[in-house]
């Protein structure tokens, strides 16, 4: 048996100088590695995929033809230096992060945005120009209000209302949850303004991951934030940063907590740690890859969720993400709802945008202000029913469960200077808007060299 | 199980156009993407064709399809 085989070529960057260099994907007995060499700074090697070459190839999904997109910049120095987006990009935009502040009320040892300290927030007028630029670029896109910690701004509701007036429909709040836990009225104002989803940093169900990743215990705060989201009737997605040896053993507990808190919790979105921005963790040889996440989920849920229930990204590069949907039946059993691999699920940015909006927005049963006898969760047979039938049909039960009690479980593996792959970057649909109003793929925007240099952040 | 039959053909008057005989109430299973839904619908005892009313086809069946396909 061959021990080592080069299976494909791509391009990456040198982690020291961030110059573009060629890279190879190499299959070995235990996984797929990226290997690259900088003429100045030497050789680099990192694990991309723990598993066989066959499993790696099988994960890839068929893509639609590259979509036409708005170009703000021309190809000059090559990827990833010309972002804006440039003509070489291969995907349209799905979601855009707006960093509405650089201030933060935590100082996490791990932060892709290196947030904290004081800098002046962008004005409402500047944000208005951002929205206009995004509409010009093919919007409306799904908007992620990010930072820093966006709830540091007292005028966040105004920012949401402004976006709605400009034609945007989906607003997601990327938050640590501190303010929405302690200030319900503030959260309610955001929801009344049009907030669709709270994307809550949620690293586990013990204090240890918070102490390591966030610098202090926060579990009670997180639980209060979950409670407030239910009260305010807004969709909630739990977002664990998963770090080796820190909370990779809590994946199952997080999923079970999410199931117990449906329909308030709409999804869990795992983010295995990446070594960019501010990251005080040691660069660990035990990198968490997609097969690791699938295995954790299967083992730690006792097979309730299985690796085979998940698919790779359809619109973005398949090796950037995974996702599966799980419906909880009234008796507590879990059913995987898996689209087939040939085209039912999202293969375009527009489909992904709609999918996110549908799956992560508030559950219809919570959004409804009127009580209905058709709520199957509470009743199985109703006299004098408003329904056309005397008993709920299986269709009714199924629809009620899939719309309200389906958990979207997903994950995204952000790239850093070690595993940066320009093939993946070119098909990215999750972008940031730079201060100069350039649209930059998330991983390119947050790319940092060993010494902390960036190409796009803050420029 | 769904009690559609009573609302579809409350007086048992539906006739199969092909065979000219009255439909009978039958339990049939509708299946799509690994999900099945038993439902009582009118069926011709001769040619075995099942009558799916338009309201059901463009209503709940369509909603279930779209939910499963994530469309």
Could you explain how this protein is built, in words?
The complex is a heterodimer of chains A (459) and B (71). Chain A is α/β, with parallel strands linked by helices. Chain A has two domains: 4-59; 95-363 and 405-445, TIM Barrel. Chain A has 14 helices and 19 strands. In chain A, the strands form three sheets. In chain A, strands 5, 7, 8, 9, 10, 11, 12, 14, 15, 16, 17, 18 and 19 form a 13-stranded mixed sheet that branches. Chain A has a four-stranded antiparallel sheet with strand order 1-2-3-4, with helices on one face. Chain A has a two-stranded antiparallel ribbon with strand order 6-13. The longest helix of chain A is centred in the middle third of the chain and has 14 residues, at 219-232. By secondary structure, chain B is an alpha+beta fold. Chain B has one domain (4-69): Ubiquitin-like (UB roll) (Roll), CATH 3.10.20. Chain B is 30% helix and 25% strand. Chain B has helices spanning 4-8, 54-69, and strands at residues 24-32, 35-43. A two-stranded antiparallel ribbon of chain B has the order 1-2. The mean pLDDT of chain B is 83. The interface between A and B is medium-sized, with 22 and 20 residues.
Helical coverage of chain B, percent range: 25-40%
Radius of gyration of chain A: 22 Å
Low-confidence stretches of chain B: none
**Largest sheet of chain B, described in full?**
2 strands, antiparallel
* Arithmetic mean pLDDT of chain A: 88
Average pLDDT reading of chain B:
83
CATH topology assignment of the largest domain in chain A: TIM Barrel
Shape of chain A: globular
What is the correct CATH architecture of chain B?
Answer: Roll
Give me the number of helical elements of chain A. Answer: 14
Order of helices and strands of chain B: HEEH
**CATH fold category name of chain B:** Ubiquitin-like (UB roll)
CATH class of the largest domain in chain A: Alpha Beta
Q: Specify the overall morphology of chain B.
A: elongated
- Count up the domains of chain A: 2
Q: What is the tally of helical segments of chain B? A: 2
Q: How would you classify the quaternary structure?
A: heterodimer
Q: Ranges of chain A with pLDDT <50 over ≥5 residues?
A: 341-345, 370-390
């Amino acid at each position: 048996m061959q021990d080592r085989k080069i299976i494909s070529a791509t391009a990456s960057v040198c982690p020291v100088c961030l110059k573009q260099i060629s890279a190879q994907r190499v299959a070995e007995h235990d996984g797929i590695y990226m290997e690259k060499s900088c003429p100045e700074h030497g050789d680099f090697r990192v694990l991309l995929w723990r598993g066989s070459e066959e499993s790696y190839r099988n994960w890839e999904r068929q893509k639609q033809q590259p979509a036409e997109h708005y170009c703000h910049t021309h190809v000059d120095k090559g990827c990833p230096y010309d972002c804006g987006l440039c003509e070489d990009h291969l995907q349209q935009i799905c979601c855009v992060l707006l960093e509405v502040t650089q201030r933060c009320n935590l100082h996490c040892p791990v932060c892709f945005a290196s947030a904290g300290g004081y800098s002046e927030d962008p004005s409402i007028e500047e944000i208005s120009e951002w929205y206009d630029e995004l509409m010009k670029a093919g919007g409306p896109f799904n908007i992620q209000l990010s930072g820093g910690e966006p709830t540091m701004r007292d005028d966040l509701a105004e920012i949401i209302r402004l976006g709605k007036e400009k034609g945007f429909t989906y607003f997601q709040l990327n938050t640590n949850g501190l303010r929405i836990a302690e200030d319900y009225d503030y959260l309610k104002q955001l929801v009344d303004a049009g907030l669709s989803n709270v994307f809550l940093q949620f690293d586990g169900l013990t204090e240890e991951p918070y102490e390591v990743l966030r610098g202090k215990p926060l579990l009670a705060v997180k639980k209060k934030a979950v409670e407030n989201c239910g009260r305010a009737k807004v969709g909630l997605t739990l977002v664990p940063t998963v770090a080796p040896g820190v909370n990779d053993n809590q994946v199952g507990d997080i999923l079970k907590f999410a199931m117990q808190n449906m329909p308030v919790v709409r999804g869990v979105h795992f983010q295995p740690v990446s070594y960019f921005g501010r990251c005080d963790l040691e660069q660990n040889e035990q990198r968490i890859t997609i097969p690791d996440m699938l295995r954790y989920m299967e083992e730690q849920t006792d097979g309730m969720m299985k690796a085979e229930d998940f698919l790779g990204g359809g619109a973005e590069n398949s090796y950037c993400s995974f996702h599966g949907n799980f419906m909880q039946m009234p008796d507590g059993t879990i059913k995987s709802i898996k689209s087939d691999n040939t085209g039912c699920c999202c293969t375009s940015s527009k489909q992904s945008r709609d999918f996110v909006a549908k799956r992560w927005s508030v559950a219809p049963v919570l959004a409804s202000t009127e009580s209905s006898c058709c709520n199957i969760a509470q009743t199985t047979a109703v006299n004098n029913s408003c329904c056309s039938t005397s008993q709920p049909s299986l269709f009714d039960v199924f629809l009620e469960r899939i719309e309200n009690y389906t958990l979207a479980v997903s994950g995204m593996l952000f790239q850093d200077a070690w595993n940066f792959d320009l093939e993946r970057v070119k098909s990215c649909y999750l972008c940031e808007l730079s201060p100069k109003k350039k649209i930059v793929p998330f991983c390119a925007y947050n790319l940092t060299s060993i010494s902390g240099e960036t190409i796009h952040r803050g420029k | 199980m769904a009690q559609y039959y009573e609302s579809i053909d409350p007086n048992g008057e539906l006739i199969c156009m092909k065979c000219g005989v009255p439909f009978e109430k039958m339990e049939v299973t509708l299946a799509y993407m690994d999900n099945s839904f038993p439902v009582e619908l009118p069926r011709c005892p001769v040619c075995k064709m099942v009558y799916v009313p338009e309201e059901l086809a463009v209503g709940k069946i369509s909603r279930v399809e779209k939910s499963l396909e994530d469309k």
